[in-house]
Each structure stands twice: as C-alpha cells, then as structure tokens.
Design brief:
By secondary structure, the chain is α/β, with parallel strands linked by helices. Helix content is about 30%, strand content about 10%. The strands form four sheets. A six-stranded parallel beta sheet has the order 5-4-3-2-1-12. Helix 3 (about 45-50) packs parallel to helix 4 and helix 7 packs parallel to helix 10. The longest helix has 17 residues, at about 340-355. The N and C termini lie far apart (about 75 Å). The mean pLDDT is about 95. The structure holds beta-D-glucopyranose (BGC). Beta-D-glucopyranose binds near residues 61, 99, 146, 206 and 491.
Length: about 600
C-alpha cells in the first residue's frame, strides 16, 4: 500500500489561508464557478450537487423537506445533499443556509421569538436569543443563518419594518449583540472583517445597505440619502457586525441614490471589502441580480456581469443553475469578468467554509434534536415578550391605573381577532414565508391561553371575537381585553401606505370599549393609525409580533411582572407625517420615541 499523497488543504493543522490557497490552485474554472452558486433545496438532488459542484443550498421562506418535518428529517435532507458535494473530485462541502429571523422560523415546533421590532423595545442584549436560535438551527443540521437583519427602518410603511430593531441606528447597533449569541464570542486579538465562527453558526447580517430608507418605505426601492445620512444612519451597525466577526453579508435589493446595491461596486468592493477589510463573502439576495434590470431577468448576462464585478461572491440564483453557470463561464472566457475576481470570490467562500470547520465536520448528527422548541428556549422567548411590550396608556390619569389587572375578578371578557390566533401573533416569516393564520401551524401559546393560565381559577374568562355592545353591557364583566392588529405579511406584500387598523379591529374596539373598562392590545409589525380610538380606550398596549409565547403578554397584564418597554419607533399620528423619526424638525408624534409607561409587579 503506497503512502497517500499529503494534501495541505485537507490538513486542519494548516492555517486557513494556506488551505484556501492550496485548494484554489487545484480547482478548474467549472469547480470555482460552482462554489459561487447557491440554489433552493426544492427540486435539488445530490447528483446535481455533485455534477455542478454547487457551493451552497438554501431553504427559502417556507421551504421544508416535508410538512411538519422533524429535526431528523431536516438533518437527513441536509446530509443527503452534502454527500453529493463530498463525492466531488475535491470533496468541497456545501454550506446550507436558511432565514432564521425570529428563531428558526421555518421549522415546525421551533421557538418563535418576537420579531425584531419588539426586541428593539427591550434594548437588551439578547445574546440568549441568539444562542437559543443557533442551537435550534443546528438541531436541524444547518450551519448558516441569514440573520440578523440590521436594516434601520426609517418609514413604517415598509413591509419589512418589523424585521428592523428600530428607527434609531444606536439601538440597531446595540442589538448586534445578538451576533455573539448566534456564533460565539470573538477572541481578544480579533481583527475586524475576518470571518469568525466558534463552531456554532455562521451569519449574514442581511441586508447591505440602506434598505430601511427607501422612498415611502416601498420595498426594494430607492434610498435617497446624503453621504452623511448613509454613513451615520444606515452603515454603523455593519461596523459593529464586522467587529463581531460576521462571515457573510447579504446585499439588499434596494438602490442607493439610483444605483442598485447588487451592482454597487463602490459600496460592496471599495467600501465593505477594501475600506472595512471584510474578508468573508458577500451573497446576493434571492434573484437579486435578476432585479438589476427592469423588468427583472431582462438581460441575465448583464446582471451576472454587473453583480460579480461589483463584488458579489455567492449568488442566490436560486433555480436556474445552468443559466447562471453558463452565463458566468462565458463572461470569464470573454474576459469581461476577470479570473482574479472569480478567485477572490472563491477564496472568500472557502475561507468561511474552512474557518467554520465544515471540511472537518461536513455531516450533521441528531445530537441537538431535543433543543428544538425546548422549554428553556420558550422561557427566553416569554421573557423577551414581557420586555417588548409597551404600555402607551394606563387609565385616565396616573392616579387611576387600569393595569395591572386583578387576577381575581368575577368575569373578564377577551375579544378580538388576534386574541386566540397563534399565526397572527407570530406574523410573517413563520412556517410559511407570508406567515399563516390560525392555531394549527406550529406549537405555541396564544394570548388568550396565556390569560386563562394567568388568572385565579375562580375568574371566569369569556372569549368572544366580535361581541356587540348590548352583549358586552349585559354580562357584568369587570374588564375586557381586546386584542386586534395586522394580518401576517412579509416583504412587498406588507408595503402599506395607509397603515390603518384592519377591519374588524376598529369595530371591536368601538363595541367593547365604552361598554366596559377595556385594555386594547395591538398586535402589529409597526405603529398604526390609532389616534381616534385612544380616548375610548382605558389602557393601550403595543405588543408588536410577540411570537409563540403568548404567556408573556399575560405576565405583564396581570402584574407578575412590570411593564418596562420603551418605544424604539416613533408612534406617528397620521401617515402624511411620514417619514418622521426622532430628531426630525417636524416631529409631532402621538407617542414619541422612547415613550413607555411603567408598572410595578403586583404579585
Ligand atoms: C428575502 C431575503 C431572504 C431570501 C431567502 C428574499 O426574498 O429578501 O431576506 O434571505 O428571500 O429566503
């Protein structure tokens, strides 16, 4: 038996850069281009992974191996694809990515944390949320999460506003502390820009840059900014993320002053890679390069040319791989894309794969399966819910507070479309891309169930979604809790120019409040137009999109904990005021940024 040839890239004792260099010089153009491709898992096979040397796969929103798939089914799926990649000539493992934007949100029975709009309120370092999310993602065999979203939403008409922590970049910067939770702490001598992974997750701060500042909040649109606004509002959190070792950055669909980010060489290459010294890889958004042209995909060769030359390293294609591979191969052969650019992209991708130990541990096992949706994580989520609620009104004056409500009362009415609807309280990006209504989508506790569990056993809770006033008056209720709000949405489907409270929310408030002392809880991804209802409401709570742990709402309504949340967004009066953010000269909010009444625990 002859001695096996020593292959430096396979040797984990070698430094990462040496391994990258060794591997790169062994690769053909075809193998290099394959590394730059990310495909959606649907219709994918291990054979395609092998044949085209595909570098990465993803689950798009709602894309799962099977309905209600278990962690084992997820792990088996990821491993099957991985075996295809490992069977290639050079055995380069693929990297599997997924959006984990409020917990591992595509996965049945995962813990669903409040959306970022609620987490911003807590202003707390949610390292524990990051760590819990990382474990749940790992439980399904996935090493790569597209999170956190560090957009600074400057206009709540934007359908992705709830993915943003705040209108204030300082809060967004503070919340990047979720990153060490997701991927571990960087060592003391860490150099900014180097991809860092301590064996947990590798992360994308999606998405680069300025997507929270588009005109009228129109998704994927144009952000018109001065240099100063760009660097002082939208950019700072990227620096914090780089300091924390994020390994990948996703480019946003939007434009900056008319230049599509996917074609923005100035910002992607000159600024992010050269000036900030980012050494991880830049990934496109889903068909993001297609959208460089209008209509999308009009000239795909041009899209490939512009994006790769701008500095995009991995392309979320995500379906037509031959079109992308042939297109890029042509451009390289014609020298429209230089081979040095391809080498740079591949080096960055390989660097991340080596740094995260993927070559040594390419296959996942079942050892974290019991972490998915486990009790400890649900407790963290429940705590986050409590701290994310903002009490906007509490009685006619401070002398006559309505909350905390007594646990012992004869009869309490719970009303509203959102009181007993897990899907509504989780919002978009939950099981399905656009979210889903009802209580059958996944495991969790509705706000109603939380209330029922919180009160004294002798207190009668009556649930009626939309009761008429006569009924409300005749039943002898001591209080009513009305839970209303927005219906689930994600991305462009959530763009909304009027931001009114959806029907029948206003009707329910009118029927109940006035007939009995009422607490209104608003479940929404952003502030809504509520000024005209406030006088008839006795207590008003902004609950944002709390996720699977509805008990957190009852925890503060019934005084087991106090209200502490402070608005991380301006609660405007009318949409004609927008955009209106803290510090603006025309600032005239209904409730200002930073506002939030407090209560003391009563038990
Ligand atoms: C979204 C991204 C997401 C991608 C993959 C796109 O529509 O804009 O945030 O990462 O889909 O699911």
């Amino acid at each position: 038996m002859g001695a096996e040839e020593y292959v430096p890239y396979k040797d984990p004792r070698q430094p990462v850069d040496k391994r990258v260099k060794d591997l790169l010089q062994r690769m053909t153009l075809e193998e290099k281009i394959g590394q730059m491709v990310q495909l959606e898992r649907a219709n994918m096979t291990a054979e395609i992974m092998r044949k085209y040397h595909i570098g990465s796969l993803l689950s798009g929103g709602g894309s799962v191996p099977a309905d209600r798939a278990s962690p084992r089914q997820w792990v088996d799926m990821v491993n099957t694809f991985q075996k295809g990649s490992l069977s290639t000539r050079l055995g380069i493992p693929m990297i599997y990515g997924i959006d984990a934007v409020h917990g591992h949100n595509n996965v049945y029975k995962a813990t669903i944390f409040p959306h970022n709009v609620g987490l911003g309120v807590t202003r707390q370092v949610h390292i524990r949320i990051g760590a819990a999310t990382a474990l749940e993602v790992r439980a399904t065999g996935i090493p790569y999460a597209f999170a956190p979203c560090i957009a600074v939403c400057r206009d709540p008409r934007w359908g992705r506003c709830y993915e943003s922590y705040s209108e204030d970049h300082k809060i967004v910067q503070m919340m990047t502390e979720i990153i060490p939770g997701l991927q571990g702490d960087v060592p003391a001598n860490f150099q900014r820009g180097t991809p860092f992974v301590s064996g947990k997750l590798q992360l994308v701060p999606s998405t680069f840059v300025g997507d929270g500042g588009t005109v009228k909040g129109i998704n994927e649109n144009n952000t018109i900014v001065t240099q100063n606004e760009l660097y002082s509002i939208h950019m700072p959190a990227y620096l914090n993320s780089l300091d924390k070792g994020v390994a990948t950055v996703m480019v946003s669909y939007s434009s900056i002053n008319g230049v599509k980010m996917h074609a923005n060489r100035e910002l992607v290459t000159r600024f992010l890679k050269r000036k900030l010294k980012f050494r991880g890889f830049v990934i496109s958004d889903w068909q993001g390069i297609d959208r460089i042209t209008s209509p999308p995909h009009k000239n795909y060769s041009y899209s490939i040319l512009k994006s790769v030359n701008a500095g995009v390293d991995m392309v979320m294609v995500p379906y037509n791989y031959t079109e992308f591979i042939n297109g890029l191969t042509d451009l390289v052969n014609k020298k429209a894309v230089r081979i040095q650019r391809i080498d740079d992209a591949v080096k960055r991708i390989l660097r991340v794969k080596f740094a995260m130990g993927l070559f040594e541990n390419p296959l996942a096992d079942y050892s974290f399966a019991d972490k998915l949706g486990c009790k400890e994580h649900r407790e963290v989520a429940r705590e986050a819910v409590r701290k994310s609620l903002v009490l906007l009104k509490n009685g006619k004056s401070a002398k006559s507070p309505v909350v905390p409500l007594p646990k012992k009362a004869s009869k309490i009415l719970v009303a509203g479309t959102h009181a007993d609807n897990l899907g509504y309280q989780c919002g978009g990006w939950t099981i399905k891309w656009q979210g889903q209504e009802g209580n059958n989508l996944t495991a969790g506790t509705t706000i109603l169930k939380g209330i029922q569990a919180a009160v004294d056993p002798t207190t009668k809770i009556v649930f009626k979604e939309n009761p008429d006033t006569k009924y409300v008056k005749s039943q002898g209720f001591s209080h009513a809790i009305v839970v209303v709000g927005e219906l689930p949405y994600a991305e462009t489907a959530g763009d909304n120019l009027n931001l009114t409270l959806p029907y029948p929310g206003p009707e329910i408030i009118n029927n109940v409040c006035g007939a009995v002392k009422c607490v209104v809880v608003i479940v929404s991804g952003r502030p809504l137009v509520v000024e005209s209802y406030v006088p008839k409401i006795d207590a008003l709570v902004a609950a944002w999109l709390p996720g699977s742990e509805g008990r957190g709402v009852a925890d503060v309504l019934f005084g087991d904990h106090g209200f502490t949340g402070k608005l991380a967004r301006t609660w405007f009066k009318r949409v004609d005021q927008l955009p209106m953010n803290v510090g603006d000269t025309h600032y005239d909010p209904l409730f200002p940024f930073g506002f939030g009444l407090e209560t003391k625990p009563s038990n």
